[in-house]
Design brief:
By secondary structure, the chain is mainly α. It has one domain. 78% of the residues lie in helices and 4% in strands. The radius of gyration is 16 Å and the shape is globular.
Amino acid sequence: MNKVKMAIVAGCLMLATGHAYAVSDAAKVGANAGAMIYCYEHVASPSQHSKYKLLKLNTYDEYKKLPDGARAKALVVKKAAEDGDYLGDRLDKGRCDSLRKMLYIKYN
């Protein structure tokens, strides 16, 4: 029985790892653009609005530069992030702060 459980866990880990690699760069761009919109509107304190607004503009600009086919795929992920779902994770204050810091480093 113990070997069966270990095989199930190993299978789940392989599926989870495979899913993580399935996220394309275009999907990440769309997710980041949508997340900055969500975080700006729902999470950011008034003192953080300028930080999120700048990142919102930067991520949307990167989204607009995607080729048409990639942008269409990224749109689905962007819309989900605008509703608070960032690549399967719920956006909250901590997640928004983490993304803001990561994207700040990327764009500066």
